[in-house]
Design a protein that fits this description.
88 residues; two-stranded antiparallel ribbon; 2 helices; single chain; Ribosomal Protein L24e, Chain: T; Ribosomal_bL28_bact-type; mainly beta; Large ribosomal subunit protein bL28; Ribosomal_bL28/bL31-like_sf; ribonucleoprotein; two-stranded antiparallel sheet; elongated
Amino acid sequence: MARICPLTGKRPRKGSIIWRRGKPKKAGGIGTHVTAVTKRRFFPNLQRVKAVVNGRVRYIRVAASAIKKGLVVKPPKRNWKKPEAATA
């Protein structure tokens, strides 16, 4: 499964880890120096939620920002009761 949000189009982005060595000048040192740069990926914050898609209730993986913006239509709450509880 691809790590892509169907609503916002967010997908993994490229970045790097920067390794530094030394004491910062602000802390009384002679400054930090970069010793290595390694590639990495930043993944979107995908959450699995129940949503109404094309009139049907489905589980979809969407970005947390899409949930906050209100782009996800949540299904209505069930008010189903057990048959013996309804007759009593």
